[in-house]
Specification:
The chain is of the alpha/beta class. It is about 30% helix and about 25% strand. The protein has a nine-stranded mixed sheet, sandwiched between helices. It has a five-stranded parallel sheet with strand order 12-11-10-13-14, with helices on both faces.
Length: about 550
């Protein structure tokens, strides 16, 4: 089920290989998905790129939820202490060759089940019902009529606007199921047998206004869960997990200055204290003044053990002649690790490396834990890591979305200027320069980016915009300044609103702000001749251009 701008608020009008000794762990190890201390809702992923929206909506109701592959074993799921199962939508037809099947444990467990879209069709198909191509396919808004009393619809009217996205429909129910709601094109829009419920529509998207209440009814009235998963609870659990994993060892933290690594560092520091050493690598791909700001905030204000490493030349050398975005990310990821390995040699025995990896990073990079999703791009700290990484990874935020990380940061007492800092990609400006990355092009982009961010700040739009930045393209266009001809690069401006970066809408920046940005860039940056504004939402685009 693809979602777009309706989910978002709008704003009006060459690195040498290192031969490490036994000082550093020789076997790479990624932290497995940690089972929560408390009970959870398991979301079975049947391939939708946006299944994580279900997970988000459940967590927003203060219930822990985790996404698992559709072929996960009962042993894996049982470790998560599930109290309910949600079956996601997906692109397949139940009759497709190789279509995902229903694991037997879903029914055998006796747990409450909420099956959505493909999940409903799969449940009906495998339990003896019938699924056929819809006579009238439903993609978009629809109205369902509730025809029977059910706890799932408690407190809601009999006519519900919903969001449909299906080409198949259930045409005959399995034994024991009853009809709860219908739409003009889908007779069995909602069904039930005991504590197993099925919905043809998508309650997880904003296009279904009553979706939150439907999910709340399922969680609290049917599954009998308690809304006990909070930032404070996460901090307590994460601290215990970090201590259990690390033991008495020391940890290096890859500190970029962004909210993700800042929260990870603060959380780990709360768990192990002085055994944490933070390393800030200036990769030469940062924004104007960023390196100085990071050192000041975290060393002088937050009093962390922060080591500053200037590796700008090394990263630029690794990126020489590289134009492919995925290759950029891979080289940047590998260079980061090699720099940390080298730093570890000078600091003694430190087998652990901490990162601010988030759940969307894992989903978009398609890790073993999120393999049902298609890979959109490699995140430098997930899929971009070298296979022979010589650290064990500590990633305490890997199951959180960005807004959850901000809440945890506030819980930990981090200042607003860190907690609410705009996201910045790990590969930095390298993925905002289309084509080869050079020091000259970096200098030009920094100047453009500073203008964009400065004008949006002056306009008071910081908190309303998820990300705003400039992109330096390789396209060149003719211009005129005074009486002379110019010939320079096209600079693109990108500004989006979002909740978690999985979907985003282009920001409706006021025209006067765009005018000031354009005028300043062309006047102040000699390499720029023309400025364009990106009005592509995600999907179909991504937030970054590379």
């Amino acid at each position: 089920m693809k979602t777009d701008s309706a989910l978002q608020p709008r704003i009006e009008p060459p690195a040498d290989e290192l031969n490490l000794t036994s000082q550093v762990a020789q076997v790479s190890e990624t932290v497995p998905v940690a089972a929560p201390v408390q009970e959870s809702v398991v979301v079975l992923d049947f391939g939708s790129q946006y299944t994580q929206l279900i997970t988000r909506r459940v967590r927003e109701l203060n219930v822990y939820s985790q996404l698992v592959p559709n072929d996960a074993s009962w042993e894996t799921v049982r470790a998560l202490q599930p109290r309910a199962i949600i079956l996601s939508g997906g692109p397949s037809s139940v009759y497709d060759t190789g279509a995902p099947g229903l694991p037997p444990w879903v029914v055998e467990s006796g747990l409450p089940v909420l099956a959505i879209c493909y999940g409903l069709q799969l449940l009906a198909h495998q339990l003896g019902g019938r699924v056929d191509p819809s006579k009238v396919r439903e993609y978009g808004p629809a109205t369902v009529r509730v025809v029977a009393d059910a706890e799932l619809f408690d407190g809601l009217p009999r006519q519900l606007p919903v969001w449909m996205s299906h080409g198949d429909s259930v045409t005959a129910l399995p034994e024991g199921f009853e009809l709860l709601a219908s739409s003009p094109a889908a007779e069995y829009s909602a069904v039930r047998r005991g504590t197993t419920y099925g919905l043809q529509f998508h309650p997880e998207v904003a296009h279904t206004p009553s979706g939150g209440q439907i999910l709340a009814n399922f969680l609290f009235k049917i599954a009998k869960l308690e809304p006990s998963w909070t930032p404070a609870h996460f901090v307590e659990e994460a601290t215990e997990r970090i201590r259990a994993q690390v033991g008495e060892h020391r940890v290096l933290c890859a500190l970029s200055g962004g909210v993700d690594s800042a929260v990870a560092a603060t959380l780990i520091h709360a768990a192990i204290g002085d055994r944490l050493t933070c390393i800030f690598v200036n990769n030469g791909l940062l924004r104007e003044g960023e390196a100085e700001q990071v050192v000041d905030v975290f060393r002088e204000q937050q009093h962390l053990d922060l080591r500053y490493v200037d590796a700008s030349d090394r990263f630029l050398a690794a990126l020489r002649d590289v134009t492919d975005p995925e290759e950029k990310r891979r080289r940047i990821g590998e260079t980061f690790i090699r720099v940390f390995e080298q730093e570890a040699l000078s600091l003694g025995e430190i087998p652990f490396l901490a990162q601010g990896t988030l759940y969307p990073d894992m989903i978009e990079s398609t890790t073993p834990e999120t393999r049902s999703a298609a890979r959109i791009k490699t995140h430098h700290n997930v899929g971009g890591l070298p296979l022979d990484i010589r650290f064990k990874l500590v990633e305490p935020l890997k199951l959180l979305f960005k807004d959850e990380v901000r809440k945890v940061g506030t819980q930990l007492g981090l200042p607003d200027e860190i907690v609410h800092r705009q996201p910045f990609p790990g590969p930095g400006l390298a993925v905002r320069i289309l084509g080869e990355v050079t020091s000259e092009r970096l200098q030009a982009l920094r100047a453009c980016d500073a203008i964009v961010r400065g004008e949006i700040t002056v306009a008071g739009l910081d908190r309303q915009v998820w990300q705003s930045f400039a992109v330096l393209t390789p396209m060149r266009t003719v211009g005129v300044m005074g009486d002379g001809r110019t010939y320079g690069n096209v600079v693109a401006i990108r500004a989006v609103t979002s909740e978690d970066a999985m979907t985003a809408a282009w920001a409706r920046l006021p025209y006067d702000v765009l005018d000031r940005i354009s005028t300043r860039i062309v006047n102040e940056v000699p390499e720029a001749t023309r400025v364009v504004y990106d009005v592509t939402s995600k999907p179909p685009g991504t937030i970054e251009w590379e």
